[in-house]
Amino acid sequence: MIQSNTNFRVQNLRFPRIFSMAIFSLILISSCTQKISFLTSSIVPAARGTVKVKMDENKNHTIQIALVNLAEPERLSPPKKMYMVWMETDQGEIKNIGRIMTDSGTFSKTLKADFKTVTSFTPVKIFITAEEDANIQSPGWEVILTTAKF
Hints:
The protein folds into 2 domains: 1-30; 33-146, Immunoglobulin-like. Helix content is 19%, strand content 37%. It has one helix spanning 2-30, and strands spanning 33-37, 48-55, 61-68, 82-89, 94-100, 113-119, 123-131, 143-146. Strands 1-2-3-6 form a 4-stranded antiparallel sheet, with no helix packed on it. The longest helix is centred in the first third of the chain and has 29 residues, at 2-30. It is globular, with a radius of gyration of 23 Å. The chain starts with a helix and ends with a strand.
């Protein structure tokens, strides 16, 4: 009786381990992060940055951008008021996904900035423009940084 009870416990312990390993594998597969570098800018050549795109369990995409050496938009020629982040979707649409804040609280002496958002659209390209107004519906002509299509 004790031995069969022990066997029962051992068999029951195997199922949670297998189940845990299967769940862990699914999490690893679904949480793959794609990291893409921005191409060199002809307008702000010192600017560098990366974009990380990660799909969550709800099939939304988290987009994280890290930038360094991005000049204040007021220093551009002609000067602008802000940087806007855009994405091209897998359907060929262009979406405004937010503004990069450039006030003294966000930009440091090394001109670093971070941006993060979540979208239900599937991005295939991310780019940043210099703009005068945050409520615009389409990007201006001055693309500061862009990724290649991914």
